[in-house]
Sequence to fold (246 residues):
Amino acid sequence: MRPNKNIGEWYHALSKDISMGGRVNIPRDMEEWPKSWKTVEYKHYKRCPSVPLLPLEQCRLVNPLTDTLFSRKSNRDFEERGYVMTHKVLSTFIANTISKTKGNYRIYPSGGARYPLEFYFFLKRSSDMALGIYHYNVEDHALTLLKGIEHIDLSSRPIHGYEWANHTAVDVFISAIFERNFRKYGERGYRYVMLEAGHVSQNFYLVSTALGLSSTAVAGVLDINVEDMLYLDGKYESLVHTFLLG
Fold:
């Protein structure tokens, strides 16, 4: 039964190691770990059209890190800029934020290399790509078109309440398949999902800054409407963060 205190505090206590009164028990000997704890999973939409991105070696950035760090900020001037996304810029953004590096590892850290996050790009303005909802296929480094923009009705099912956010070029939705973490870490796996979303968000900020894009993370979205638009059930896979570009 839930104790009479803040649910966040209650969760944090339960998600500690079993030796500290929590419910998490990870054997120290990796030989005892089942195969599912060490297998990286990938999500595919095999029946949907795929759009290859530019090869990673063509998307390297050379901006000085310190300059980028001190220039980073949240911008909401999307309407004034009227930015139109291109395949090259989107390829460069993805390559430097969420792509694979060596083997199954990726450019951002993930607790236990479980990689529970999935990435969806709502492309609203582009000069050389079809508009609509894309899923990033990290294994093949390609975008999969799930739904054309003509099939999206934001007037009856808005995804946020901010007028300024209607003028972005791309909305990036970060979802999590929690089971990838839970099967190994139990309740503690939820902590790692949120930490990972934060790591990725900082990548998004720094790379968008290096590319000269306006960008901002936004928490005030209507989760259920977004999940419906992305064909997510909100339980097995659920929205955890949103990032805007333009």
About this structure: The mean pLDDT is 93. Residues 227 and 233 are 7 Å apart (CA to CA). The two ends are 47 Å apart (CA to CA).
